[in-house]
Amino acid sequence: MNIKRIVNLGTLIILICTFAVFTIIYFQNDINATLVQLGLFLMFCATLFVGNFALFEFNTSTSIKLKTNLTYLNFGLSLVAGLVFFDLIPFEQFWTILVGIGILYLLSIQLQLLGWSGKKHNLIYKVIFLLVLISNLFLAALFLFQLDFHQLRPAVYGAVGVSIFAIFYGLYFNGFDSTDPEKQKV
């Protein structure tokens, strides 16, 4: 089984499990802390796996080696997330660090979806790269250095908006071509 199938299957399983856990939490009379921990862990992992899935499915310009390395990083972050969310590593001290590192991981996925590793880029792509770097580094610093969210609320909303726009722009304009022979190699 190749790495692409593992990512596809892992993404599907994690999304189904996330949906199932949050459905169970919704229909319970009392909130079970273990289910909440499991739900947070699965939601974090779903975010990572969906980003990795998008990289495999919608990007043909990134090398297989880089995609594989990002997948291993994804598995490592998921393992650390499990340790943090299930309190094997103190949750209060490390959840912000975990979210900040997760944002940096998603930054690498976004840049690959936008074609960062391409040879030449026009001015629009250079501006988008700059905006994505600034916005995601700001969001990561917000969590890594535990800055006050309430005073920076407009900047946070702007950074999240730029980040979401960049993902959709990268998926739409750098999406895969099903007739591309490079796509068939993966």
Give a written overview of the molecule.
It is built from 7 helices and no strands. By secondary structure, the chain is an all-alpha fold. It has one domain. It is globular.
Key features?
mainly alpha, 77% helix, 186 residues, globular
Question: In a few lines, what is going on in this structure?
Answer:
The protein has 186 residues and is mainly alpha-helical. It is built from 7 helices and no strands.
In sequence order, what are the helices and strands, one letter per element? HHHHHHH
Whole-angstrom Rg: 18 Å
Largest β-sheet summary:
none
Shape: globular
Distance between the termini: 12 Å
How many domains in all?
Answer: 1
**What fraction of the residues are assigned to beta strands by DSSP?**
under 5%
What is the overall pLDDT average? 88
Return residue spans where pLDDT drops below 50 for at least 5 consecutive residues.
176-181
Number of helical regions: 7
> What's the number of extended β-strand segments?
0
Q: Indicate the percent of residues in helices.
A: over 70%
Class by alpha and beta content: mainly alpha
Furnish the topology, listing elements before pairings.
Layout: H1 3-27, H2 33-58, H3 64-85, H4 91-113, H5 123-144, H6 153-173, H7 181-185
Helix pairs in contact: 1-2, 2-3, 2-4, 3-4, 4-5, 4-6, 5-6
